[in-house]
Design brief:
By secondary structure, the chain is an alpha/beta fold. 33% of the residues lie in helices and 22% in strands. It contains eight helices and twelve strands. The strands form three sheets. It has a five-stranded mixed sheet. Strands 4-5-8-10-9 form a five-stranded mixed sheet, with no helix packed on it. Helix 2 (44-58) links the parallel strand 2 and strand 3 (61-62).
Length: 247
């Protein structure tokens, strides 16, 4: 079985188009979108349409991200990043906001062997592998504590995949393979390339084992940055991050 997992499109239609082409070339059996698909300024309406097409054509599974939750919050004078949210509500149809806000926190595949979430399998906002406050990767013990019952002996889970931190990472903790698939957009490591992960389980004697392939894809960064500068509030800031691959 081959599973394609991507996360954090952040309204970047240009990057998602390139990722979709690369995924389609690999002919996966399942597609998984780990959320935060719309909150961004490089054609979020176009990114929404692409994600709807993936669900219709490939029955792509989806989970809820932290900015998906933010999109659905009531707007008030004190709402954080209100200007961006108001603009997004004007760009997106109401059903888009309702859809992402109602997504589950986790999905499972391969009989429970593969578990996918945005931040952790139980939270869109928490981080599974990355300690944002300390600027470091969490210890194995911290990761296992965050996984709770998924790390137990009776759990069928063998691979856990998340996004949220925008940092690619692979960790083997006992029988568990823990993966951060990186981000389609808004990179943080100095490379503007779009990211996704391909999971593939073994056959024969290797049955039950999973290979993890990190994929990086070129896309028209200049066009995405130009779109943000021309249309989005704070588009200049987003354009700089898209071009530089870092905030």
């Amino acid at each position: 079985m081959k599973i394609a997992v991507f996360s954090d499109v952040h309204g970047n239609r240009f990057a998602l188009e390139a990722v979709i082409r690369d995924i389609a070339d690999q002919q996966p059996d399942a597609w998984v979108n780990l959320g935060d698909g719309l909150y961004g300024g490089a054609d979020p309406a176009g990114a929404w349409q692409l994600q709807r097409t993936l669900q219709e054509r490939y029955e792509a599974l989806e989970v809820r991200g932290n900015t998906d939750e933010r999109l659905a919050q009531p707007l008030a004078e004190v709402t954080e990043k209100r200007a961006m949210l108001e603009w997004l509500h004007g760009q997106l149809p109401p059903e888009a906001v309702q859809h992402v806000a109602g997504l589950p926190l986790r999905v499972t595949l391969a009989g429970g062997a593969v578990v996918c979430g945005h931040g952790t399998p139980d939270s869109a906002r928490d981080y599974l592998l990355w300690d944002k406050a300390a600027g470091r990767w969490k210890t194995d013990a911290e990761v296992l504590a965050a996984l709770g019952d998924l790390a137990g002996e009776d759990s069928p889970a063998r691979v856990v995949v998340v996004g949220h931190s925008h940092h690619e990472h692979l960790r083997q903790i006992g029988r568990l393979t823990v993966v951060n698939c990186g981000a389609v957009s808004r990179q943080k490591d100095g490379s503007p390339l779009a990211r996704w992960v391909l999971l593939e389980n073994g056959e024969g004697e290797a049955a039950g084992s999973w290979q993890v392939q990190f994929r990086r894809v070129t896309y028209d960064v200049a066009a995405a940055a130009a779109w943000a500068e021309a249309h989005a509030p704070g588009g200049g800031k987003e354009a700089r991050q898209l071009r530089a691959g870092r905030p």
